[in-house]
Write a structure and sequence with these properties.
Layout (H helix, E strand, L loop, with lengths): L2 H6 L28 H6 L21 H21 L6 H4 L7 H6 L1 E5 L14 H4 L6 H9 L22 H10 L4 E7 L25 H11 L3 E6 L13 H6 L9 H4 L5 H19 L3 E4 L8 H17 L5 E4 L10 E5 L11 E6 L17 H13 L2 E7 L9 H17 L6 E2 L5 E2 L21 E6 L4 E6 L6 E4 L3 E3 L40 E4 L3 E2 L2 E3 L5 E5 L13 E6 L3 E3 L6
Parallel strand pairs: 1-2, 1-8, 2-3, 3-4, 4-5, 5-6, 6-7, 7-8
Antiparallel strand pairs: 9-11, 10-11, 11-12, 12-19, 13-18, 14-20, 15-16, 15-19, 17-18
Helix pairs in contact: 3-12, 3-13, 8-9, 8-15, 12-13
GO molecular function, one term: alpha-L-fucosidase activity
GO cellular component, one term: lysosome
Function: Alpha-L-fucosidase is responsible for hydrolyzing the alpha-1,6-linked fucose joined to the reducing-end N-acetylglucosamine of the carbohydrate moieties of glycoproteins.
């Protein structure tokens, strides 16, 4: 079954036509491909021959002239969509896009994958392709000792070894869904210039080199089949500035590897205008072919001229508008206005709640980079869940990275952590999904010293609480970063307005016990000392209603039930739902 046939079977509102937005024929692609001239250029052979019985796909460009022609035609196709509106490639017009769709604010959690030929050496981190040419870096030493001189065994010779023979898109998508992700997708191109999609533009793509499969297409189909949204992350801006970009050490120390066709395309060794046209053409091809809901950008975007940034955004949002969709674009380094994008924090997050929704990128691995390397270490499930909670409390969304092995399998340690997140969300998702930030994001002794990217993270304890609220404002969730212990637990970061509106109740005797409408004698106390309650209720998610009271200074006091460890909703973090209260942050709240 072709990609379009699979898409037509899904009733997700997606345009499954076989034409591009400008009416030109849309290519059909296969899950597997085969021998091409590019393989011969690399001195490799494929064991699988490409069939053409069900496809009208053209082969990737085999000469520089064909490459330039493919780029030109793709950019022209984008121009037609831009000209058709409704958005013009000007910041004033692009300020009218819906830069933060409701689905993005609701879904909260997604997963993406660093996976490519850099997974073949599996050494140090995914910036191996850059540092192997850096004569002052230990990766250069490792490469020489293991493979030979970098100009004799350049990076492009890893591509045929990226076979993905065990990759199962349905298995990945099922894992991501089980982890609680609402959107997911691949790094469709990292800084190394190699693309995971079936491309007519670049010869360095997964359908024509390496695995001879359209990896992006397989994932897109599997992810959408589970009614998740599709993410594509682009890191190619840093590649397509040539000798000043990702492969600068190759240009400096081993220039021969960047020369000739098709190698020069991989290294971004192109005339300036062609560099940026290629940048745009790759985006246009992926958006037109796979219809991503979320396009994420990495470093290097400020080096792309604003004209191209505006043209892409106009194309993306116009294409989405034609399909009745709202989409998300992130930016780093303040490259794009927040009127048409959302801010991104790499390995970090802000110290305070942000007025506009934003994105945090984090990774399951601790030491060892974002992609697969041998002997990686991993963050604990507790750390990952706590990061998610803190991010959401500050109006953020979390995009979490995994790094599959070169064969397409995901390590047991990563799978375990994803499943732990999913188990926690199964019980506590009510406090995460479809929520909005409250008037304060939390309380407790632990908070970030400063916000931003690449921050020094913190360890939370049960004394730390993070707040979210339901979209309708009727419920505030107090998420405690651990099991708070049996007995009284005071939420110091909030106060209850008008606590005497209902009968007073001493701690440990409940707020408004079922069937109890009159105060008892023991509910009364001296003025200023009595404990009152309001007309709301408190639930411990995963358990049920719990007794509560309101202290003399207006703080909610929860009577935490005495639960055996096996009966607790979680020891990582638990959430209390405070329903139908009139609450305000106290002086102890974090904002």
């Amino acid at each position: 079954m072709t990609h379009e046939d699979q898409s037509a079977d899904r009733d997700d509102g997606r345009d499954a036509s076989s034409e591009y937005e400008d009416g030109t024929p849309r290519r059909r692609f296969l899950a597997t491909g085969g021998t091409l001239a590019i393989a011969a250029a690399l001195g490799t052979e494929s064991t699988t021959a490409r069939t053409t019985s069900e496809t009208t796909a053209t082969r990737a460009p085999e000469t520089m002239d064909q490459f330039e022609d493919a780029v030109e035609k793709t950019v022209a196709r984008a121009r037609a969509v831009v000209d058709d509106g409704p958005f013009d490639p000007e910041w004033e017009s692009l300020a009218d896009v819906t830069q933060v769709p409701e689905w993005f604010r609701d879904d909260k959690f997604g997963i993406f994958c660093h996976w490519g030929p850099y997974s073949v050496p599996a050494y140090a981190h995914e910036w191996y392709p850059r540092q192997m040419y850096n004569t002052d870096n230990e990766i250069n030493d490792y490469h020489r000792e293991t493979y030979g001189k970098p100009d004799e065994r350049p990076y492009q010779e890893f591509v045929p070894e990226f076979t993905a023979e065990a990759f199962d898109a349905d298995e990945w998508a099922a894992l991501f869904e089980r982890a609680g992700a609402r959107y997911a997708g691949p790094v469709v191109e990292h800084h190394d210039g190699w693309s995971l999609w079936d491309s007519d533009v670049t010869p360095w793509n997964a359908a024509d080199t390496g695995p001879d499969r359209d990896l992006a297409g397989e994932l897109e189909s599997a992810i959408r089949k589970r009614e998740m949204r599709f993410v594509t992350t682009f890191h190619h801006s840093y590649n397509l500035i040539g000798e000043d970009g990702y492969f600068s050490f190759a240009y400096e120390n081993y220039p021969s590897v960047t020369e000739g066709y098709p190698d020069r395309v991989l290294y971004g060794n192109l005339p300036e205008t062609l560099q940026f046209d290629t940048w745009l053409a790759k985006l246009v091809e992926v958006v037109g072919e796979y219809d991503p809901d979320f396009v994420w950008f990495d470093w290097g975007l400020p080096d792309v001229p604003e004209e191209y940034q505006r043209r892409f955004l106009a194309y993306y949002h116009n294409a989405a508008a034609k399909r009745g969709k709202e989409v998300v674009t992130t930016n780093k380094e303040d490259a794009l206005p927040l009127e048409s994008s959302v801010a991104d924090f790499e390995l970090g997050r802000p110290r305070h709640t942000q007025e506009q929704a934003w994105n945090a990128e984090f990774k399951v691995a601790d030491e060892g980079g974002w992609g697969y390397v041998e002997d990686r270490t991993f963050h604990s499930p507790t750390r990952l869940i706590h990061v998610l909670i803190d991010v959401v409390s500050k109006n953020g969304q979390l995009l979490l990275s995994v790094g599959p092995r070169v064969d397409g399998t995901i390590e047991r340690e990563e799978r375990e952590r994803l499943l732990a997140i999913g188990d926690w969300l199964d019980v506590h998702g009510e406090a995460i999904y479809e929520t909005r930030p409250w008037d304060a994001f939390g309380e407790g002794p632990t908070r970030l010293e400063e916000g931003g990217e690449f921050i020094e993270d913190v360890e939370y304890s049960p004394a730390d609480v993070r707040y979210t609220r339901s979209k309708d404002g009727s419920t505030v969730y107090a998420i405690v970063m651990g099991w708070p212990g049996t007995g009284e637990f005071v939420l110091e970061g909030m106060t209850v307005d008008h606590p005497s509106a209902a009968p007073g109740t001493p701690p440990g005797h409940g707020g408004s016990p079922p069937g109890c409408t009159e105060p008892s004698d023991r509910d009364q106390g001296p003025p200023g000392k009595r404990r009152g309650t309001a007309s709301g209720s408190i639930r411990l998610l995963g358990h049920g209603p719990v007794p509560f009271a309101v202290s003399a200074d207006g703080r909610p006091v929860i009577d935490v039930p005495d639960l055996a460890e096996s009966a607790r909703p979680s020891d990582v973090a638990v959430a209390f739902a405070l329903e139908e209260f009139d609450l305000e942050p106290s002086e102890n709240a974090h904002r």
